[in-house]
């Protein structure tokens, strides 16, 4: 254990060296403060260094600490560093504590089995407690994690859903609650958990091959800058079209707005900040009804 205080760049640089020596280094700091090491993170991707950068206290869900602590930009930054195909920087965002543990185990066991990868890994976690999500009906859950996305719920059953809600991280649980509220109003929803943001756009991804198979309109939900998830979903839609499929279009992308000109976030609770950004179940359901004109 090496305490690095507020020297995130030093931590990343040292971890890169440890990774080259065959170790499995983990860096842990606030998601927002990993931006202080942006140059080192980019160099790790460019030169093939390996370490696991864990960004905690992410998004506007960080609550009372206010805007200066809210990491909403880093997913987009890391995604940019990962290259067009997402191969230069792995990205994972768990939807609850169990998924965080499962992803950590997957990363470590893969390195022990296959050796050190030639790229870094980013694991984005929250500060606030998240409810444990039921995955008992997920077929081959370990494989679903590796695939990078999977369907968490489908209130349409075998029928055509009215809306595809694509969520990542802490907002997955809220999207699931929203789907139940919408089902009670005869609005059929399929909820997708995006675990690995920068793999869903690939032609061989489950997201492209199996999830984007019809013309169902899409709502993306992410406790980060809205375009981080939105633009990769848009790329996946284009990939699906090139493959001859007929995916729906994105009608709306919800994210965290920390602009100083807005009052969407502040030193309030997680619940208050989610409500202001319509990232809570009620907000997601309201937006869904609005874009579907129901």
Summarize this entry quickly.
With 294 residues, the protein is of the alpha/beta class.
Q: Write down the secondary-structure element order.
A: HEHEHEHEHEEHEHEHEHH
Find the structural class using helix and strand composition: alpha/beta
Distance between the termini: 54 Å
Within the largest sheet, what's the order of strands? Answer: 5-7-6-8-9
Alpha carbon gyration radius? 19 Å
Low-confidence stretches: none
| Largest sheet properties | 5 strands, mixed
Quaternary: single chain
**Please, how many helices?**
10
User: Overall pLDDT, averaged?
Assistant: 93
Helical fraction equals 25-40%
Q: Which descriptor suits the 3D outline? A: globular
Strand content: 15-25%
Number of strands: 9
Care to describe what's here?
The chain contains ten helices and nine strands. It is of the alpha/beta class and 294 residues long. Strands 5-7-6-8-9 form a five-stranded mixed β-sheet, sandwiched between helices. Strands 1-2-4-3 form a four-stranded parallel β-sheet, sandwiched between helices. The chain is globular. The chain starts with 7 loop residues before the first helix and ends with a helix. The mean pLDDT is 93.
């Amino acid at each position: 254990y090496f305490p690095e205080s507020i020297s995130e760049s030093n931590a990343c640089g040292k971890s890169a060296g440890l990774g080259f020596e065959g170790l499995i280094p983990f860096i842990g700091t606030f998601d927002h403060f990993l931006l202080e090491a942006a140059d080192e993170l980019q160099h790790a991707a460019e030169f093939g260094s390996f370490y696991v950068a864990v960004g905690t206290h992410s998004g506007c869900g960080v609550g009372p600490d206010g805007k200066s602590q809210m990491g909403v930009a880093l997913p987009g930054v890391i995604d940019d560093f990962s290259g067009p195909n997402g191969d230069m920087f792995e990205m994972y965002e768990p939807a609850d504590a169990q998924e965080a543990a499962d992803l950590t185990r997957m990363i470590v066991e893969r390195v022990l089995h296959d050796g050190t990868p030639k790229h870094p890994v980013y694991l984005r976690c929250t500060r606030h407690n998240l409810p444990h999500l039921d995955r008992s009906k997920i077929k081959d859950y370990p494989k679903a994690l590796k695939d990078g996305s999977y369907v968490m719920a489908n209130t349409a059953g075998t029928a055509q859903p009215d809306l595809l809600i694509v969520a990542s991280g802490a907002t997955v649980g809220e999207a699931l609650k929203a789907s139940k509220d919408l089902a009670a109003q005869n609005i059929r929803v399929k909820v997708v958990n995006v675990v690995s943001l920068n793999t869903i756009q690939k032609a061989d991804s489950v997201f492209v091959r199996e999830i984007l198979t019809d013309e169902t309109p899409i709502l993306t939900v992410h406790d980060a800058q809205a375009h981080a998830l939105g633009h990769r979903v848009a790329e996946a839609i284009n990939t699906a079209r090139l493959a001859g499929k007929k995916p729906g279009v994105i009608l709306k992308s919800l994210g965290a707005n920390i602009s100083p000109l807005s009052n969407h976030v502040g030193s309030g609770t997680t619940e208050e900040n989610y409500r202001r950004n319509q990232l809570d179940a009620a907000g997601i359901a309201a937006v869904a009804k609005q874009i579907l004109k129901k």
